[in-house]
């Protein structure tokens, strides 16, 4: 089952356009060349100094290999990490997630104007769907229900995020 990382970075004022440009010019292609899929990068509607992005991996082993390929072995990261890190105050807000039973995934969300994701941090994997999936429209907001990957400690009972798409 596909694993997703929901990553939310707190940036220095004015850092968003710099980091978004790095993603557009070099990071997306570099990450995908190393085995990750960049599912989207977003602007937080409530915080102009927050950069939100989602990447995915086929499974946990693929994730380990892809992270090593990008962050240890790639020239893309080596050549651009100083510029990226200079935009950030904090990059530790990361959740490793899986779609809950009965819900799709984010594979069909590219090009959406608004993506709304609700994250439920559950103590154990659900065995039945969380709730009926809402009616989906090809142009409307996408909804997803998630659970953390085994071993992930929940720091909050619930997190809900609204973000506007930056990439198509």
Automatic annotation (TrEMBL):
<dbReference type="Pfam" id="PF07978">
    <property type="entry name" value="NIPSNAP"/>
</dbReference>
<feature type="compositionally biased region" description="Basic residues">
    <location>
        <begin position="159"/>
        <end position="168"/>
    </location>
</feature>
<feature type="region of interest" description="Disordered">
    <location>
        <begin position="128"/>
        <end position="168"/>
    </location>
</feature>
<dbReference type="InterPro" id="IPR012577">
    <property type="entry name" value="NIPSNAP"/>
</dbReference>
<dbReference type="InterPro" id="IPR011008">
    <property type="entry name" value="Dimeric_a/b-barrel"/>
</dbReference>
<feature type="domain" description="NIPSNAP">
    <location>
        <begin position="4"/>
        <end position="101"/>
    </location>
</feature>
<protein>
    <submittedName>
        <fullName>NIPSNAP family protein</fullName>
    </submittedName>
</protein>
